[in-house]
Amino acid sequence: MSPQLAAYTTSTGEAFQFWVLGTVAVIGALSTVFMKKAVHSALSLAGTMIVLAVFYLANGAYFLGIVQIVVYTGAIMMLFLFVVMLVGVTAADSLKETIKGQRWLALLCGVGFGVLLLAGIANASLKDFAGTGQANANGNVQGLAALIFTKYVFAFEITGALLITAAIGAMVLTHRERTERPRTQRELSEQRVRDGKHLPPLPAPGVYARHNAVDIAGLLPDGTPSELTVSKTLRDRGQMRDVSAEALGDLRALEQRSEERLERTPVEPAHFKRSEEASK
Amino acid sequence: MENLIALLIAAPLLGAAVLLVGGRRLDAVGQWIGTLLSTTSFVFGVILFVDLLGRNTDDRTLIQHLYTWVPVAGFQADVTFRLDQLSMTFVLLITGVGSLIHLYSVGYMEHDERRRRFFGYLNLFLAAMLLLVLADNYLLLYVGWEGVGLASYLLIGFWQHKPSAATAAKKAFLVNRVGDMGLSIAIMLMFTTFGTFAFGPVLSHATDASEGRLTAIGLMLLLAACGKSAQVPLQSWLGDAMEGPTPVSALIHAATMVTAGVYLIVRSGAIFNAAPDAQLVVTVVGAVTLLFGAIVGCAKDDIKKALAGSTMSQIGYMVLAAGLGPIGYVFAIMHLVTHGFFKAGLFLGAGSVMHGMNDEVDMRRYGGLRKYMPVTFITFGLGYLAIIGFPGLSGFFSKDKIIEAAFAKGGTEGWILGTCALVGAAITAFYMTRVMLMTFFGEKRWQPDEHGHEPHPHESPKVMTIPMIVLAVGSVFAGGFFSIGDRFLHWLEPITGHSEGDSPISAGVVTGATMVCLIIGVGIAYLQYGRRPVPAVAPRGSLLTRAARRDLLQDDFNHVVLVRGGEHLTRSLVYVDHTLVDGVVNGTAAGFGGLSGRLRKLQNGYARSYAVSMFGGAALLVAATLLMRAV
Amino acid sequence: MNPVYYLYLAALLFTIGATGVLIRRNAIVVFMCIELMLNACNLAFVVFSRMHGNLDGQIIAFFTMVVAAAEVVVGLAIIVSLFRTRHSASVDDASLMKL
User: Fold this and answer.
1) Torsion sign over Cα A185, A187, A189, A192
2) Which of A148, B184, B207, B241 has its CA 20 to 30 A from that of B463?
């Protein structure tokens, strides 16, 4: 195939790749918008970005393709996930609209804009593709470097300043100034004694139970769960699992089994799931 | 010699500054400082007078250029003084009579705590008046004019603890302000007409301007003169000005203030000569005022107010004479000078009577005082004879000349004005005889005041009687001295000019008629007040009497026409302002407010709403771009 | 296949991202949608680079990435401090700029 022809047609392989991965990208984009949980949105977006990285590579932008995977998918999306976790991974977004007419206006604008954009592209005569073969002759990275450090050197320096500014800005925004002297451990313990609150360390989760997961409350001697044993963050998020019913069930099964052995009353049908386990 | 002119003004001005700034240290000697400095000014005046007499008739104008006040291109105001025969006459009258009044005040104000300040104000008054008559241009004259207004305000309201005095001072100041406006407009008109306001160029080129313009200037000058000289229609302040201490009344009525208007008209004679219509108005104002003042004077029981009415009437004579043009200018000034003597004497006499009667002013509480205060009686009596025009005394010569001049105006106007003047002379004789009889003759009618103090009438101390004696001598001899050989006429003629006019009746007939009027007036008064006892409470009297007691309803007229009218005008303007002007303004504001209230709903605070607007805008931009490409 | 289809894809992704910004209330998701729009632009730039046969388009895309990184850093910091003070990541809760 002559280079001239390669300019405005692509190989069958690339066409196949475009249609398959393009569908994936659109689906990813749509699920970014419509997924209820922010985590799912983030994962969908990461998928779309990887597809875009492949497209960059297909278009001859080898450096950008790798950077897209390393920086975007690797760093920025992980930053997103980190903030999502900080804010609360399970906090689901209500999709009910609160501003009157907002959704309809948004859809109208979106459809109108998209149609206009597509019409614009279709209207433009974009038949002539020169291809990147010539430009990438000495290697893509070398070509970019030559441009960045000559033609775009000022813009490059300014982006450096921009990044530093952004870093400082982020620190200023999230840094909390301490306005009072932090209380020492001694003062804190004296305070606790004076208030008559819980003095010894808080009980660990899962005590008296066969679970040691952090989201399962430990049981008190009467079998009720103690909220003190679970981290406050999990309690606030409502992610505490209650297994107290199981323990009580086990106890009842044990009693029944001993009755049987003593042949006091006829055996009642066991309706507790873990009867065998309790008998071991 | 010229350099002495500024000292004339500087002496009393220095006195005012020292006395008003000096503070309590000068309380003990303040009255003597004031008197000394005013006398100093008089001495300078005499020196200059002697110098003028020694010069040729054509060479008697002295000019002293002190400095240039406003040096702007096309508008130059100099502080320049002009001393000529007219100014000289005024300087001698002001400083001479003024010094005598100073001396009298030393006795009269002996017990007043704020005496030092009083003398400071008196000196300020003299300085302002001297500046007025010595100025060489109308703008500087205006400064003196305003200074006189200020000083009169301070002096009339000197006993400011009395609300009536404070009100009277305010009234005098406000009424004067109306006149001042006339003077300022006249000065502006002069500047636009002649390009200057110095006496020399304005008066020598007066005939170059159009008659309409000159009439306008003349009428504005007349308005100014009406304010200062208490002529109808701006006469209302004069009676109330009696609230001031009696020496102030004497100063205002005899030597200063009220004479300023006459001076202004005579000084601007060239303008009036070229504007006959303005002159006619001047004579009408003078004639009306002389009758008005005389009628008011007849009805007043307050001795000072009766004298105030008399002043108004006599100034009316002068204005009438000044309005007659060259026929009358000299006689206006001559009457002004003789009036300065006898009216000052009369006021000082009245002050002396009050001084001996516990400040009682009601003549119905006087009576038979000639036995108790002989010097006052004799000096007052000589002043009385002078003012009614008793043959041989000052008033006889000057008033007779004015009546003659009024007839000499010629035509119907001459007859009317002359008759007015004659009737005025008769009424003058009546009310002055009334004052004389009620005060010094008949039974004693005084009673204890509210504190039970019986007045003990007594003669005033020497420091008060000496000025009265001097003034009485002036009242007797000044007229004769001026008239014999037409001395005064020859003295003033180079400045004012003179013409004889053509009198339809001879001078002898006029004098005879005047005498007849005089006898009629005195006779009626004697019949009413000399033959019968004077009731202690004023009888109700006829409609005219009651109106005259209320100053011929001048205040009612002012209240109804000016105050009420002003109130109505203001109220309607306020209404227009509230409904129309404020309506437009507030309506616009309310319209924008309502519009903003509706537009504000777009700003709901939700970032996403704003984002929709941005996105819609971007879509419109794309659409526009495509549209432009398609076109 | 004509490479112009890449441009259609970029326009589609951009529109989806913009609509997402308008519809979603969770600030983090809004941010992700903005990233999606930026990436769509990047794709367009890369395709333009291929069209013109030079590397300038790729340079622009590279700068876009840098700017996006800076924006993400600041934006996420804002979201974190917003969440700290208001205990919510909803963009509608930060609506005090009205009467």
Assistant:
1) negative
2) B241
